[in-house]
Write a structure and sequence with these properties.
It is built from no helices and eleven strands. It is mainly beta and 124 residues long. Strands 2, 4, 5, 6, 9, 10 and 11 form a seven-stranded mixed sheet that branches. The protein has a four-stranded antiparallel sheet with strand order 1-3-8-7, with no helix packed on it. The mean pLDDT is 94.
């Protein structure tokens, strides 16, 4: 079970923090976790991944978004700064089933456990 939280509506240039808390899944440091998003009418896009303290970002969010994990409580965060209207999407957290190659991928098929998503809306 994976649960995201922290979505909402902000103005262009605003910030949000998303949280992802898996439950019933061993939150091992070597398991990849990732953030994906799906804008209205578009496909799924990987934006950030994290595993063994290595974070990777898509070009569309690099230098604006930061992901980190609190290993003590097994929670993954996505700090989103300088948000733009094109960042409007449903954001999903995903967790891999097994330790994989690093850096963690943006391939949806590499992730077994998915949350229901949290909506982020950025208005101009």
């Amino acid at each position: 079970h994976v649960q995201e939280s922290g979505g909402g509506s902000v103005q262009d240039g605003g910030s949000l923090r998303l949280s992802c808390k898996p439950s019933g899944i061993a939150a091992r440091p070597d398991l990849c976790m990732a953030w994906f998003r799906q804008p209205p009418g578009k496909g799924l896009e990987g934006v950030a991944s994290f595993g063994r303290d290595i974070a990777t970002y898509s070009d569309s969010v690099k230098d604006r978004f930061t992901t980190s994990k609190d290993e003590d409580i097994g929670t993954l965060y996505l700090y989103m700064n300088n948000l733009r209207p094109e960042d409007t999407a449903m954001y999903y957290c995903a967790v891999a089933a097994n330790a994989g190659h690093l850096p963690c991928s943006f391939g949806p098929s590499d992730y077994l456990y998915w949350g229901p998503g949290t909506q982020v809306t950025v208005s101009s």
